TrEMBL record:
It comes from Amedibacillus dolichus. This is Cof-type HAD-IIB family hydrolase. The keyword Hydrolase applies. Keywords: Hydrolase. GO terms for molecular function: hydrolase activity. NCBIfam families: Cof-subfamily. The keyword Hydrolase applies. InterPro entries: Cof (IPR000150), HAD-like_sf (IPR036412), HAD_sf (IPR023214). It comes from the Bacteria.
Length: 280
């Protein structure tokens, strides 16, 4: 059995949208690492959003912020943040438009003054769209249990800034106002998106994987990527094999080499067996 380098998206791939990690996924990852494979999470989350239950599985490192942070065995391989000038300009612009937001940093998630109040219905709608049962819906503090409120919002360690969209025009205006930054949306496609974000330009999951492989002297032909959304397509295209979750979006499934079962139907475990990363 050859040794592979495995990259796992988190939300919708490793976890469901209630932040539950299937026991079968934990077993698969631990067995794969015991077999000599390297396993990294590759996520839009910053390091501050990777909570202890994820690290406790046992991982070789992470790619965070959709590519702007790379870590291997506790050592930072690559990190790129917004400049202080860029960060201040975005914060000022969002505050002038009265759009609530949070700063995504490795040290924590820092919320704007009224993010919790305004974010409550938005976060619940986001969960509903992802299939969360009504009795399992949680608010901002449940979804972001370590979010920091009341801190200084002018910072030098910001990977990305996410903000609540009052309309799709807010995203279009942000894109026009900050052409030097990477603009995106999440929580829905196109005009039904719930959040916009502004981050470091010219990086994505594929770029970060390339940097990590160089650092650990691994080969691209040995890579397998797992994801569920459009943002995962660059890593599907870069890696030798791309695997989409059965519960994922149609664009991700179309771009993948293989579609496994849904997260809560042991999708990761079944795919690990399919590709002989683990045995039964």
């Amino acid at each position: 059995m050859g040794h592979n380098v495995i990259f796992l998206d988190v939300d919708g791939t490793l976890t469901d949208y209630e932040n539950h990690i299937p026991a079968s996924a934990v077993h698969a990852i631990r067995q794969a690492r015991a077999n000599g494979h390297l396993v990294y999470i590759c996520t839009g989350r910053s390091k501050a959003e990777v909570y202890e239950e994820i690290w406790a599985i046992g991982l070789d490192g992470m790619i965070g912020g959709n590519g702007c942070y790379v870590e291997h065995h506790g050592k930072v391989v690559f990190e790129q943040t917004l400049s202080e000038q860029q960060e201040r300009a975005v914060v000022d612009w969002l505050q002038e438009r009265r759009l609530e937001f949070y700063l995504e940093c490795n040290s924590g998630l820092y919320a704007s003054a009224h993010f919790e109040e305004r974010g409550e219905p938005t976060i619940r709608l986001y969960q509903q769209r992802k299939g969360t049962a009504a009795d399992a819906l949680g608010g901002v503090r449940r979804v972001f249990p370590e979010m920091i409120f009341g801190a200084d919002l002018y910072r030098s360690d910001v990977n990305k800034i996410s903000f609540i969209l009052e309309s799709y025009q807010d995203f279009l205006d942000a894109q026009a106002a900050f052409p030097d930054l990477k603009a995106g949306t999440w929580g829905g496609k196109g005009e039904i998106a719930l959040f916009g974000d502004l981050g470091v330009p010219a990086v994505d999951k594929a770029v970060a994987i390339d940097r990590l492989l160089e650092a650990v002297h691994a080969k691209r032909e040995d890579t397998i990527a797992f994801g569920d959304a459009k943002v995962d397509i660059p890593m599907f295209e870069y890696c030798a094999i791309g695997v989409a979750m059965g519960s994922g979006g149609e664009e991700a499934k179309a771009a993948a080499d293989y579609v496994t079962d849904a997260v809560d139907q042991d999708g990761l475990y079944h795919a690990f067996r399919h590709f002989h990363l683990i045995e039964a």
